[in-house]
Amino acid sequence: MSDKLLEMAYAAAKQAQGHGADEAKVGVSRARGVDLEWRDGRLEQVMERTRSSLSAELYVEGRYSVISTNDLRPEALDAFLAEGVRMTRLLEPDPHRGLPDPKRYEGRAALDLQLADPNHGAKDSAARKQQIEALEALIRESSLPIISVSTSATDNRSESARVHTNGFEGARQSTSSALSAMVTLKDQGDRRPMGWDYTYQRFDEDLQPLSKLAAKALHRAANQLGAGALATGQYTIGVNRDAVGRLLGALLGPLFGPALQQQQSLWDGKLGAQIVSPLLSLYDDPHRPRGLGAALWDDDGFATRRRPIIERGVLSTYLIDDYYARKMGVAPTGADLHDLDWAYGDKDAAGLIKEIGEGVWIDRFLGGNHNSTTGEISLGAAGRMIRGGALAEPIAEFNLAGHFGELWSALVAVGDDPDINRSERCPTCVFEGVQLSGG
Amino acid sequence: MNYFEPFGVDEALLKLGLERALSRGADWAELFFEHRVSQQVGLEDGAVDRAYLGVTLGVGVRVVKGDQTGYAYSEEISRAALSAAATTAAVIADGPARPAPIAFNATPLPNRYPTARPWAEVDLSEKMPILQRLNEQAFAADPRIAKVRVGLSHSQGAVLIVDSTGRVSFDLQPMGRLNIGCTAIDGARRESNGANYAARGGFELFSPQRLELLSSEAVERTLFLFDARPAPAGAMPIVLGAGASGILLHEAIGHGMEADFNRKGVSVYSEQLNQRIASEHITIVDDGTRLGDRGAINVDDEGAEGQRTTLVEQGILRTYMHDRISAEHYGVAPTGNGRRESFRHPPLPRMRSTYMLPGPHDPAEIIASVKRGVYAETFTNGQVMIGAGDFTFYIKTGYLIEDGKLTQPIKDTNIIGNGPEVLRQTDMVGTDFKFDDGGWVCGKDGQSVPVSLGMPTVRVSSITIGGVN
To answer: Which of A19, A245, A419, B93 could share a disulfide with B65, CB 3.0–4.6 Å?
Structure first.
């Protein structure tokens, strides 16, 4: 099937050139998925998704545009490509646009990343239905005051192909499956706190057991029962690995080319400098077998390789794609992040909570935002107090605020417990002296 | 229906799709055809040198039995593809087939998207000067402006909704949007901010006056940040300025009043219907009827006409926002809130334009009433936990209030509160109602839809400010 997609991509690139494009990148993808949702004792929704699309980046007389369509009827596609080329000609020229140097396509690793489960589909809808029904039953075994339980299963298979008219070609197939649980409890007054958990993997055999999902969803919901206020002040905080990604996103966002080139990055001029705690080491790890972010090439077609992003708190690289590199007059570094590998510690969440002794456990962030230009960050949060090295009373309606560079500089411990459901693979993290404000 | 004829849509195809959808005896079924053309043009570093053109085409088939839904979509419009999708969606039911409609009846709709120059008639060469003009105006406004980015985007969506009663609704939905972002440098300091505008209409939306307003807003909001600092931390009164503060309604109250959450018993408002939830000064409306508004709809995405729905009347919760499933669950008429991102999604109860009506208090009096607190003026985003009712919104710019006066500018501060509590603590409502015309996008269950909001100046007696002491 990938050969057919490659054929389509080559044919569309040729058509675009026939209409006047000098060069083109063309990608074609197809995907099929099935979702089942179960709620309170019965199937609530069945959904089948079947998608196909074609996108092209067009380079015409020094000008550039992107087009995409899922209307793949031959005459419609040809007319669309012609219109794309015509539109591109009207734009102002951009001397920095062009396909990457083909030498950067070289060196692609000869690895099987195991992106597609050969047994994908072995669990049909009836089997998935049994699983999500069983998941609800496990949650209902709890004595907590349950109002509602929703569970779901999702299976996806996709394939894609991409060609560049200067020699790049790539095709891949991938699969993924997910199971999730959501439970709503009755609390004081009208409050109905909700807890959830999910497992998301490329291979069905890697999905976590239902019992773990049920326990985690219940734990999260119970963490909010009778939640009280937090006194405003500075605290040592432990951040649940599921929530660390929110802080990591603020840290990494200003490393990308557009932020740097547009002078919207507080990390501008910091390459090689100590920007955060020496406990933070992050590596882009694109070749992890079955990795959720695994890839042999990036969006520019560059062959991927493992590389440090931050080592012992020192900024090792920016994340600059081919276009912004040309614009900035620097060498491209690749702008895609894949699976992340951390310098993990030697304690899990429970061990770190014990080590914190007195502080705040942040179970989740809610809303908020950050300023990539200056570093300010302010996020809503909920969690538990930590007293005597253990989780104590639930707390809600508080904010974390400060500067995200300073926050990551105050990192004092990293867990040994990566979140395997996300490519960021964040562990539990502990920060000292963090400003929290409560009611 | 004529619009979709070139894609092969005719009565025979509709009958086939509905026949397959009802083949296992569902209560009702619906076909949702969509064709959408969208374009974006961008300016960076002084040049209009990038554009995007996109086309989406497809049909979603929904089959409903009670409150159970089967859904499938096809991106190919053909007898075989529609038949396969409808057969898949039909698995939600398990009974004898029901007949498909014999005749189809087109529903006349109002026109709430007045459009002088449809996007399809405007060439890219006419749009490019708009971006250049915004760029020039921003740079001319202040020498500290170092970088400007401008984006113009528009779309024209055609939807055809056909259900198993034979009801047919066709709507052409235009949308235009402009964004401008600025970075300013003052000595060693840098700040970035921006402004945006969005509405349903055509090229006429971007008048010279609109461009002037947008560029000056973007520049002023950026330079404002040099004098601003994060707010102090802790609980204190907040005055929400008229207009964009409507995000409070959207996050703190609106989502909890979407009927699907209440039907499932997971909303904090699940047992509050016809009860007092706010002071008598507070009336909250969700409105799909405002001409040209970003949240306006002639028809929702399951064939119900867009309406003006009073959610809270003088403090009493009167109704939830319904789609067809929840309306049948509660035994009421749909409120025209059944919306979806595209044919790839089933509809859900969603907001349109959500606002609070003006109240009796002079806005100056509201500010003067606060000894020490925060005045919030512009916002970027918000979020809510439906069941607990806890919500946040992020203040991009505002002021401290000290002794009844606006003093120190503030920025980048998150606010967190509990929806029902904040509603009860909203004790002053201004006379100065204002709609916000920004390009707000609401996310729910992985679906994004355009919305708008509005608000008079209001005072909330206490809320938690996520600042720094």
So the answer is: B93
